[in-house]
Write a structure and sequence with these properties.
Elements lengths: L3 H19 L19 E11 L4 E5 L5 E13 L5 H4 L6 E9 L2 E9 L4
Parallel strand pairs: 3-5
Antiparallel strand pairs: 1-2, 1-4, 2-3, 4-5
Length: 118
């Protein structure tokens, strides 16, 4: 029969083993590398002030005359404006809602919604 001391020792050993095994890297992750946080989707609404198809950026004017620049990719969804980036170039000063991710100083648009004229 196992005494209380032996049970506590076995329980501590089991917990230590779980912590040790669980502390290893996630599959595909280098040891010592922190897992990347999931990128949160953010939104901004404003007036489309510029489209640069060469640099693949758009600029949106927001409150107090400030502007925010976004990078877009081939995967960026566009609604309204002929549902394309090329269509955005013809909608200067249109109200847009830009859904984006932010990594460091880079804001990448995942969706651009052109609002109907009022």
């Amino acid at each position: 029969m196992i005494g209380i001391t032996e049970r506590v020792a076995l329980a501590l050993a089991a917990v230590s083993l779980m912590v040790f095994v669980g502390a290893g890297p996630v599959a595909g992750q280098e040891p010592g590398q922190e897992p990347a946080p999931s990128q949160q989707q953010l939104q901004v609404q404003g007036s489309l002030t510029a489209v640069d198809t060469d640099a693949m950026t758009i600029t949106v004017g927001i409150a107090d005359g400030q502007t925010v620049q976004f990078r877009y990719t081939d995967e960026t969804e566009v609604s309204g404006a002929q549902d394309s980036i090329a269509g955005l170039a013809t909608t200067a000063n249109a109200m847009v809602i830009v859904t984006f991710t932010e990594e460091g100083e880079t804001r990448t648009a995942t969706r651009i919604e052109v609002q109907p004229a009022q």
